[in-house]
Give the backbone structure.
Amino acid sequence: MELGEEIAQRTAFGQALVELGAEKPNMLVLDADVGPSTQTHLFGRAYPDRFIEVGIAEQNMVGIAAGLSTLGFVPWISTFAVFMTKRAGDQIRNSIAHPKANVKINGAYGGLPTGRAGATHSAIEDLAVMRAMPNMIIMDPADPREAAVCARLAMEIEGPVYLRTVRCPVPVIFPEHHKVEIGKAVKLHEGKDVAIISSGMMTPRALKAAEILEGQGVSARLLHMPTIKPIDIEAICDAAESIGAIVTVENHSIIGGLGGAVCEVVAEYAPCRVKRLGFPDVFLESGDDEVLFSRYSLDIAGIVSVAKALAEGGKKNK
Amino acid sequence: MAHEHDVGFLESVAHQIRTLIIDTAHTAGAGHTGGSLSEVEILTALYFSFLNVDPECPDWNERDRFILSKGHASLGYYVTLALKGYFPTDNLKTFDREDSTLQAHPDMHKCKGVDYSTGSLGQGLSIGVGIALGGLKKNQQFKTVVLLGDGECQEGQVWEAAMFAGSKHIPKLIAIVDYNKVQLSNKVDENLSLEPFAIKWEAFGWNVLSADGHNIADLLSVLSRASALSARGPVVIIANTIKGKGVSFMEGKYEWHGKAPNDQEYTAAKKELGSK
């Protein structure tokens, strides 16, 4: 894994499971007929005795994992985030979150990139749903490296973890020994004119945007949030107080995800202007990932333009 | 006491459970009385004869596991656990109250002896399948028993779990359906019939047995057959029961699904139970 190399995050996640499986004999992986898509089939090939194919039955998958966890197994359940968090949402809530089951959840195909599958398969609200559940830790890794780091970190936590992964290639931005701390932002760029707060696969492009903005005379602080819950309240408040204008960037609805979390913090502790970039309460459609992302300013040019406008004019609303 | 097969003794335990259900519901002014009364003999046969459990060591690794998938019938479950010795019967007075270990629906982190938290219907069988599968993977010998409500079997997840367990021949897994024929708002048949019920389970790959769910001797004999059959794959016992069993004015009435007796009803119920 080289810096700048584009690797599908799902593949990095699948390979990380294989590595973890070698170290942790009590780790199991369950999938609901989408292993070749979520890449958990890699684990299945490496450890056929520890891979459980449940068929297209997400609700049952959640319950089986809950039961297995009572015997000291650490099960990963894996399917598309859109089905995981809604089809099996009640099961995650009542069989995992409330009993604090030590089950790890892979929400695959997070957000828009679903291989042109469109509205029914695009998880635009998975973070919102999961964020409202007590006991749930939520990770939204930026790059292939961080997806692997988060998978490892999830195994160190006793209790439920939701780890979102995306289908498409994402450039590696973190070096080999990158570490993630629960509830801690990663500052990737320093600046004073505008703060960009991003998560997941939006972070690599937000980083490019921050570099471009610098060339245009706009100094942007970039905070990446590897964990959406708990969120780094201190880093958000510091950005709000010292900069006073925040753009959030996420591969998710602007309702209830990273943007929602940042607004909650800012409104309660350090009011300032926040512009949320994400899907504006719409269902997505099939088509090319990048064409669709650009419609919502979730490409590099879009982030640059929105952040610049906010840096130049946004603060007057303060 | 754990393996007491004296039917007379078990019948006296069942009577005690039934009486305490009425007492507890009345004290709390809450509880699912009808479905708690229908499961009394099933729970008695399980906890006072069939299940290999030890209330002194509720987390004993080799214990048989029990999941009350129809979690709303916690009243009957808690009374049974208390009489079995998991906690003092005095605790029953706190049922459904603020800060009680005895929540309206069983909470494994609050109540001793509860193997898994339940409440949202349809989820317990999947959990039981996971536990049985885990036991198989670890080469453990315990049995897993899941008690389902009949109305609950209208949930799709029950059949996902049934399909999985049946097709994978999961051993040492016994489901019991408390087939009291009445759900919250109506008779089961009139809301959404389960029939032909036994054929459905069979088609999903289960061995199907039926029992008179209020006859301790029959339950013990069927449980024993189920245990033997479960060596090769999952077994379901369809236990024919009566909702509200033991109190004439509660029997077969959906109105008693989620209701506790008032003072007058309490006195009448106690009189009926006392005369036995």
In short: Chain B has one domain: 7-274. Strands of chain B lie at 65-68, 144-149, 173-179, 207-212, 235-240. Chain B touches chain A at residues 65, 107-109, 115-120, 122-135, 137-138, 140, 156-157, 160-161, 163-164 (CB under 8 Å).
